[in-house]
Amino acid sequence: MKKNQESDVGKASGVVWKMWLTMKLLFCFLLIGFSTVYGNAFSQVKISISVNEVSLQEVFEKLTEQTGYHFVYSNEMLQRTGKVSVDMQDCDLGQIMAVCLKNTGLWYRLEDNIIVISPKFRQPDVPQKKITLTGNVKDKEGRPLPGVTILLKGSAVGVVSDVDGNFTLTVPEESGLTLVFSFVGMKTQEVVLSGQQVLHIVMLEDVSQMEEVIVTGYQEVKKEKMTGAVTTISSEKLSDRYTPNLIQNLEARVAGLSTYGGKPIIRGTGTLYGESAPLLVVDGLPVEGSIEDLNPYDIASVNVLKDAAASAIYGARAANGIIVVTTKNARNKGKIDIDFQANITLYENKNVDYHDNFLMNAEEQVERASEYYDYYFNRKYADDPSMTRDKVIENFGKNITDGAQINPVAYAWYQHAAGNIGRSELDNILADLSKNNFAQDFADNIYRRQVMQQYNLSLRGSSDKFRNNLVINYRTDNMGIIEHKSNWLNVYYKGSCDLAKWLVATFSVNGVYANIKQYGNDYNVNLDPFSYAQYQSFYNADGSVKKLYSWYCGNEYMPLQEGMEDLGFNLVDELRDNQTKTRRQEMRYHGDLLFKIIPGLTAQTQFVYEVNSQNVQQHATQESHAARTIKNAYAKMDTESHKLVYMTPETGGFLQTTHTSGNFWTARGQLNYTNTFGKHEISAIAGLEFRETKTSGDKSLVLGYDEQLQSSATHTVDFGTLSQMSNSPYFQMNGSPFPCNQFAFTPYLENGMGIVKEVRHRYGSGYFNATYTYDNKYNIFGSFRKDYADIYGLDAKFRGRPLWSVGIGWNAHNESFLRDLSWMDFLKLRFSYGVTGNIYQGATSHMTASSGDINSTTNLPVASISSPANPDLRWEQNRTTNVGLDYGFMSYRLRGSLDYYVKTGKDIFAPITLDPTTGFSSMVANVASIRNNGIELAIGYDWFVPGNRRGFSWTTNLTVTYNKNKVLEVENPATRAYDLVSLPYKTGYPVNALWAYRFAGIDDRPGLVGQSMYYVENGNTSHNAGSASVDVLEFGGQSDPKAIVGMDNQLRWNGLSLGFLLVYYGGHKMFAQPKSEVFESSWDSPLNIVYLNSWTPENHSDVPGIGEYASTSLGSECRTATNCLYDADFLKIRNITIGYDLPEHLTEKVGISKISLRFQINDPKALWIKNNAGIDPETLGIRKQASYMFGVNLSL
User: Fold this and answer.
1) Which of 185, 465, 703, 1096 has its C-alpha lying 20 to 30 A from 392's C-alpha?
2) ∠ Cα 1082 1087 1093 (to 5°)
């Protein structure tokens, strides 16, 4: 059975000031909206209606257009009444209703702004003993349900619940009587009376009775009339599990949507250079902000538009699909609904066990390092008369004084070789080093248990004319590292007002404020414990934290150069001395006016303005490693005074600030037309849309900065001189001048200021779409849009691009020959074809130039031409064919969809080779083509259907996604193997293809032992295959999953709930745990555990040799070779959720309508991983940390 339901449903100081103004504005709106006097009277406006032989449904639709009242009824109930004819002029609504319902056995009841149609009830006419029952009816969210039919089973005795969901009914005083509760969109519920006189009924939503409405952003379309491929996720489904952001919550819920690696992709990658993420639309208009900024608690529904018929109305931004988010509205008139959610997520401590992370432990690495240094000092140069043992020792000592990176094992062996310590003392030192566990000490001092908290408060209320929503969301995260923290505040207000019967105004404002504190940038300090040798001690002998030395930091054994700062760093202090603070603010203002011109015709104007700013400050104190490094790097010896001169301030640290901002607006004007005449229905929209995007920013650098004194010495610095220095004139490291070019001073040449370029783009569009429906059986759809953009169009014919789609649909369940199939509720066939577009911001029709460094001769800035003009530049195109089937059987107990699609991308941006005489070697142009085709399957099944809220239910939702991706045409200029590995596009292969060097074993020839070999041309082998022809490579598969399967199970009983999500990703490959060639002295960081099986003359393994048998040629082929290519298939439980809804009779005692408790486990250990190496494909190493969430939801 089908039923319809229609019802009314900058700077820190500047940021604080804007927040205060925003809150004052919101308070004023709330004061006006929430203090409005609630009330409603039956309209006495005169109405005229003239219809002949039409259904009651059509009459009610015409009355809604004239009065604004909405009707709730059962289709089955109305179908039994047949056709009616009404011809009444200047009559009130009550008179018309009486005529319409005459002799139908139906009557109406006005509940607030809703007219409920129900059977006429009567009380028992046989004198007998009676009892009076009272009660209330609510939905599972605790909202009262007006208009619920309460019927004594087997009789015509009944009532309808009032606006507050309350009812009173007199029935015979007999045991075993049954009351039947029914309501449009809810599952019919039977309650057997057993002496109770007060009833509290909770009704559950019934998808079989909901005529689903799909929101596309431009319009709302009933599912029966939709010809496109769309998946709708309701807020109830989203609330089944908690995730910090929407994309994670959509995982495995939407067939065709991949969230692999946290990157959302709909129906495969269809571009090489352009944007691949779907467009985000919130409340009807696209947003430029991040999907991460959406408040997960304020989402009413999500519609994912996948094919051209669904998304083509968005034109040049539709090629990657659309995610349309609708935020929540006020629920109940005359009442303020208050909801509060709080949750805390605790993460497992990071696993720093070396073996679990595929690394040698301290004992294993000390043993192998000792074998090497024994060989180095005693046998390596035995056959070289010029390298006596004393010379070897002397050279090693010079490396120490020159600032080479020296590890404790090497230094101990050096001391022993030099005769400074004996063998027993050496053994004791090595034994002590073997006991160290740097990673664990690091974790004990630097890591902390990550804790994330989130709180959400929403207030919603409405009256006849005002609707108000205020939602405040706060999130804080300690990020699992000391001296790190992030805070995030999201404030959202949405209000609407009926300014007149013909005019509705909607306004919203959304503010997002984020503060993040974390370690500042430093090239030599790493917060990864596995960047340091595992046998390294974290502590000094007295228990204090020890200084560490990494590359270009020297070593703890070297004497300092005169006037130089020691570059050792204490990790704990460094986290305090060098910090980056990010302050981000995003504001979004949205206004909407809806004009009701005549019945069936409305006009709508919408405008959204977004402004965002981000301020990033890195403050490094004088004691920080970064400040000391800069001081050393830019020091020189004065030739006359022979004294050290510093080109940067001698005291103080530095403060680097980067500020970026963006301003975006979109304006839209649209006409909406809907009309029904007989068996024909037409729905159409037409409009114009304009938008602009602008980004800009600036940088500043302050040297010699003292935070307490708020002073600096930047004015003493010659940035022009600093920017031209590639190597330090005095400071030496590892026997070479310190490389200054790691510091980018070029942007600060003029008074310490740098400018981030301003980018502005403008777009204009016109669009139209229409749907024709005949007899609720056949749908024909068409859309057309033409977009213009200033990015393209040097050639006039490419300035605007027509984008369009067509679709047809057949509602087979409405056919007369299928209506008698009681098990068939819904069966729809769909077909669509259309053209959508995509934009690549990195290309332009015009010749472009970019500024560079200072000219050494003129001392003036220089610029260079970076790309040639391309007058043929145009939008990428995607042509999509889609065939689909939607179904619902057995009262929608079994439901789902099946789609097959072919999406072909034309004019895809890709590099092409140019004639060198043009002055350019290559450019990006519209020269490639890509095809994606696949199958999407969604199945939902209710294994058990509850008779009431606390009955047992079990629902399974299964989604299956299969996508095949292929590059049809591309010009790849790669001629050598390593070019194709780095730019893997090749005709006939997937976009993200993996190209592998064919591993040929380990070389055992004298002088070459321990080195990896790879097959090259003619079956030969080589240690360096990167320069060989591309033909030597083997296609290893693709990095994108071909198949994605998700199975979501929800079980409920007596207020308890259990949910778990299974996900499978398969058909893809990965490069992981490369068996790299390493320097023979590579002992300064942990080696992979595979080197426990490294090649030796006694062990001919496939792992390159280390130490004595290490390679003399360090090629990169090992990272993408066939011996480190693994299957990436896996099956995981993504999360397990346990919930409990407290009984209503307990919550009402404390004045709360609903209390829900929840516990959730996220990312437990994988159930199955295909590769036998134990590598997690999502991390390419150890599995992700599990987390545990505890939450509570309250509704007042």
Assistant:
1) 1096
2) 110
